[in-house]
Amino acid sequence: MSYTNFVKAAEAQVLINTPDVLFIDCSFALNDKEWGRKEYEKSHIPGALYADLDKDLSGAIIAGVTGRHPLPEKRDLEATFSAWGIAPTTQVVAYDAGAGFMAAARLWWLLKWAGHEQVAVLDGGKKVWAEKGFPLESGVVTPEAATFTAHFNDSLLATAEEVMKATEKHGSCVIDSRTADRYAGQNETIDPVAGHIPEAISRPFNANITPEGIVAGQEAVRGYFAADFAKEDVIFYCGSGVTAAFNVLLSAYAGYPSPKLYAGSWSEWITDPGRPVAIGA
């Protein structure tokens, strides 16, 4: 069976040590960039590799040009996936310390962009996995390389120029995935400029995570985005293109057609002082 959006812990645990299944731990903390790797070394799903958001899942930052987590160069991403042993038939299960937004969904999106469909995010991440008593191990896993041939689908991407045009076009839908306070410009602790892209609507990435740390049911998520996908040109963004990928994942889970991701997101948008900024809810 192929998993392409979320996979439940009970479903995933039977895949341990299964040929052509690869678990990848993407746990990361913005305020402590070594935390995720240290946590991985202490305990991870058996056989899992570690993917670092900054080093593996992002490209080089160019001051005044890119956002905080620019996309990797295509050739670099292809080389990374090959080094990890991702072959055409590999089922990838990405997970992190929580529900999948930091940064399992980023890996999910990158693999989709590269043309690999068999990738899913572990619902509830390592937290729920551990709560269910499923096995964990320590140490570092060395991958066996394979040949990953990417088929990049750039139609999944939106540029800053396309976002600008979408905000000026009747019927388009630009969605800010950050928390509501950051959208309103009330609590900006990460980026140097507060606010949001004018005409963008707020759909916080964490609105569909239950108190138990898993995603809400498909019908609930479908209803959450219903008015948005009734429009054209749905584009998601966040602070740096990471948590917006979680909203893209949620939309796939809900059965909607693939939206676009403005990967540079807010941290790229504000590098150009000529781009407009809005404040308030």
UniProtKB/TrEMBL annotation:
User: Is Repeat there in the keyword field?
Assistant: yes
- Identify the keywords attached in UniProt to this record, alphabetized: Pyruvate, Repeat, Transferase
Q: Which InterPro entries match?
A: Rhodanese-like_dom (IPR001763), Rhodanese-like_dom_sf (IPR036873), TST/MPST-like (IPR045078)
Q: Cite the Rhodanese domain residue spans from the record.
A: 17-138, 168-278
UniProt KW Cell division keyword: no
Which GO molecular function annotations are given, in alphabetical order? thiosulfate-cyanide sulfurtransferase activity
Q: One Pfam annotation, family name?
A: Rhodanese
**What protein am I looking at?**
Thiosulfate/3-mercaptopyruvate sulfurtransferase
- Organism whose genome encodes this protein: Chitinophaga ginsengisoli
